Amino acid sequence: MFFLQACAPLYHWRTEMKPEREPVGTCYLHDGSKAVEYAPCRSTIIDADGQGFCQGGFSIDFTKSNYLFLMYFSSGQLISDQVAEIVAKYNSKVYSIKYEDQLATRPASANFDDSYLGYSVAVGEFNGDGIEDFVSGVPRAARTLGMVSIYNGKNMSSLYNFTGEQVYNLFIGAPLFMERGSDGKLQEVGQVSMCLQQASGGFQIIRLNGFEVFARFSSSIAPLGDLDQDGFNDVAVAAPYGGEDKRGVVYIYNGRATGLNAIPSQILQGQWAARAMPPSFGYSLKGATDVDKNGYPDLIVGAFGVDTAVLYRARPVISVNAGLEVNPTILNPEEKNCELPDTGVKVSCFKVKFCLTADGKGKLPNKLTFQVELLLDKLKQKGALRRALFLHNKQPGHSKNMTVVKGGTMRCEELQAFLRDESEFRDKLTPITIFMEYRLDYKTAIDSAGLQPILNQFTPANVSRQAHILLDCGEDNICKPKLQVAVHSDQKQIYIGDDNPLTLTVNTQNEGEGAYEAELFVTIPPQADFIGVVRNNEALARLSCAFKTENQTRLVVCDLGNPMKGGTKLLAGLRFSVHQQSEMDTSVKFDLQIRRYGNRYTLILNDENPETEDDIGPLVQHIYELRNNGPSAFSKVMLNLQWPYKYNNNTLLYIMQYEIDGPMNCTSDMEINPLKIKISASKGDEKNETLRDEDNRDHHINRRDVTSNEGDVHTLGCGTADCLKIVCQVGRLERGKSAILYVKSRLWTQTFMNVKNQNHSYSLKSSASFNVIEFPYKNLSFEDIHNSTVVSHLCLNMI
User: Fold this and answer.
1) Which CATH number among 2.120.10.30, 3.50.50.60, 2.60.60.30, 2.130.10.130 corresponds to the domain 166-313?
2) The model's pTM
């Protein structure tokens, strides 16, 4: 049975012919069938010395045994009567009714005048006798410091007096609590003290401060029961003069094993109460009662400034378990095991299996519909070519409405995806991220009264998995090539005026494992021009070469294979015309380099004075994704990246540029790309999302035995090397949204080719950390939310 009690603590009457009136207070109790008046202080014990200033009903509570408990406010007295007796003895013609089963404290002495005993009351079991006891706040006792009194539920005798000390699972509000601000001045912010009993018998006090000045945070506190059905009770805390225009706000805090989550999962605002100022929304709270019988406790919020109390119905919580599987996780481009539906072209396929199950308590429809979004190769930047597509639509994305039975078995669906032809992309080293996100279709889940359920805010609404392209790198899928280049000229001497072309025979070989994105770079001297590749000699490989200019440097770039497999030997001829010699020229110099993309290992010849990005060394790109998994949004986060930049004044990882995706602004403590080296277009970021039906080159993937003898590794992190710092301020991110930082750098190989650094292995460590600074809630105290990660880049045996 549920009872409803509404009180008017300033209700007054007169017992004698005097101009003064006595605020004895009165209440109206509704037991579900009728309403009766209850005014225990309306008696013959009058004036301030008696019950004339009782203000009965200023705070009330019910016991589980159906007793009504209220306070006698002036000097202090607590009164409790049985609900059944109140209803049975009610007589509208009798102004003062005596109750036989009444429990009451003795009236306090004059020493306790204005101590405000009963300013707040609560019921709980504190002494282990199985009978509920009574708790009362006495905010002006103990020389106005305040205290809490606990009374025996049998006879209203005092059990304990606490001045904010440890008690059993008790929440104590101090709305006038003050703390010093950044200027050293005291400011009134309010505070909640959570007194939690420990299993060891001790107690723990956790304090939660408000941020908004004069909001009266913790003026009212109400237990809510288990709103989210996670096994821990939740609490509402009001700041009746907080929020926009001081209209008042109520914060919903979720319980957990260690107490309360310091971040509110929801904030109720009294914007509807703006017709009166101040509306004092949240001045009174009452929860832990399932009013609408949907299986979840509801909350009543009082706003005495507008003479209104509002019922907030708890939304049913749906818990979702999502699964995502990729099979196989190592993708072999040579195994073309399926066909494109429209062309019949053989492609390398893999399966993406996604699953959902959902359950929840209360009035929920038997079937729940979710909108599922799948995305392949998610971490590729916007507009970049994605290396995997779904077979049925040849797109990287797929949307699906998925209906599951509440509490039923997991429903799964499977799609086939495929790798693009190897000729369409060059990046085979970075993993392919498969991303799944789901959203509830609220329109199909709404109840007859218009109440929508809500997803469990503490479970991420997304899942991701990774797949790797099988490399010519052995069982560990990590490449360790050993590249060599030699060159021979068909002319030992060049004569001024000689028009005969010069042919360079280039011998390149890889004595290690596969080298991905391997290219031969030839710097053309001013005296020469590139004619082409020698193609009339079957002993020479017909390389695909192109002429390009970077920063006024003329280059010939030849593709050596992707990968250039282990054991490969390529002999190629490059023909040049030499016709611009002068008497000052004593030699004609051609510079040749082999460059490759490597995720962890590289061996490369390097220019001491690089002019182009490719002159520096192999590409090293990091992607840092900051994702808000909820439940709350945040309005400000600081992301800090520390990057190993120099060691003994020698460059390590040279940052070419960084890019952002999302509400984020970044700055660095050093200039990015101070040498103004020209940035090359990323070979893996072609802007074409269409599928091309081209045949793949035939090649065989060899495997090697994994060896563990890599020698000693020297770690170069921010403790030993000089670090460049990138600081990013991330703006508001809602649950499920993310901000991404892309860092593009080059390994400065000249540092590692130095004689003193040869024959050593190095681990370059960068670190990223974040710290939540602000939430979009004015009156909020929260725990320090932070995390960090370390990324290592390993360079083995630089020789």
Assistant:
1) 2.130.10.130
2) 0.65
